[in-house]
Amino acid sequence: MAQEAQVTVAPDAKLVIRNIGLLLSGDLQRPILDADTVVATGGRITAIGRAKDVDQEGATTVIDARGSALAPGLIDSHVHPVAGDWTPRQSQLNWIDSTLHGGVTTMISAGEVHTPGRPRDVVGLKAMAIYAQRCFSAFRPGGMKILAGAPVIEPDMQESDFRELAEAGVRLLGEVGLGGVKDGPTAKRMVGWARKYGIQSTIHTGGPSIPGSGLIDAAVVLEADTDVVGHINGGHTALPDREIRCICEGCGRGLELVHNGNERAALYTLRLAREMGQLDRVILGTDGPAGSGVQPLGILRMISMLSALGDLPAEEAFCLGTGNTARMRALDCGLVEEGRAADFVLLDRAQHSAGRDLLECIRLGDLPGIGMVVIDGLPRIARSRNTPPADKVPEIVTP
């Protein structure tokens, strides 16, 4: 699909998705909804229910799900964009559009750290963050929503710098630890300034990932007190289990599991969160592009892995990559509920999977097939070019 600038949805545009076979809400408290129809007007969900109980009149677009499942659009909590739909890390074009074909409708930057010649001085890093925030607010490959402009903090920054960034529209910090700030006291002070001005923070966790990063252990993570513990399963190298447990039990912040991390450590963190009754703290990212490449199906693979190997019901695993992240990141998407953005992925069991339906397909470790992605109430792609073909595939029908 052609890349494009931000799309304005007509306020009277009405979408009806009917004949939904399984409706996944993204909400851990109620992961499956008893409904087969969703209605959205002006890009916002306005009704969820049975076909006979919702108003379908005046629809400008009707999608027949044909028995396939509907879930909120997936959210990647940890990416490293640079310029448009290109990454110099792998010299790869169209990686964002390709990720859209993996069901992801929203990406969150953990810092534009792969930018060639990335400035480390305060004036330069602020300028680059504001530039990235502006660019990715206006540029949406295939309709993808990209929250970018995440400066990596440096020791010379003062409170006024955070105020200036916030006034310019910056709402994220890049991973603490990827710049010159790697100690607990300095990180804590700057994270406090960021929080004061409404800027959300993430910290690198584990061993160094690229030249310039360093070890960030449990003591630094707990003292810094960022809003999200970035890749607690390492990016790539995980902390020892005792330190992972220390972090999980020692703070109430978000616990981010990433594709480009230690899978055993991810499963260990999941088990700890479940034992503590705090599964709502777990969110998912890819941490790509990275040295291991770009993972268009990374969030789907995490959902499948955590369900198949972590003994997590598939419908709950979807919540980690949708509603949990939306609430943790204060987003207006990620949940199928009235008033939220109409961002959806329609999917079904992969053809020839040993699983009898979508949930069993995932529970057995297979990836599902994506039949359509909708963003802001607009169909953006049909059958995914990256997933295995789905058994049931939705279609757009005339109103």
Protein described:
By secondary structure, the protein is an alpha/beta fold. The protein folds into two domains: 3-72 and 333-397, Urease, subunit C, domain 1 (Roll); 74-296, TIM Barrel (Alpha-Beta Barrel). The protein has eleven helices and 22 strands. The protein has helices at 95-100, 122-138, 159-167, 184-196, 218-224, 241-250, 263-275, 298-310, 314-320, 323-328, 358-363, and strands at 3-5, 14-18, 22-24, 32-33, 37-41, 44-49, 61-64, 69-72, 74-79, 86-87, 92-93, 104-109, 139-141, 145-147, 202-203, 228-229, 254-258, 282-285, 344-348, 369-375, 378-381, 395-397. A hairpin with a 2-residue loop joins β5 and β6. The longest helix has 17 residues, at 122-138. It is globular. The mean pLDDT is 96.
Search tags:
five-stranded mixed beta sheet, TIM Barrel, Urease, subunit C, domain 1
Number of helices: 11
Low-confidence stretches: none
The 3D shape can be described as globular
Query: What distance separates the N and C termini?
Result: 24 Å
Which architecture of the largest domain does the CATH hierarchy give at level 2?
Alpha-Beta Barrel
The total tally of domains equals: 2
What structural category do the secondary elements indicate?
A: alpha/beta
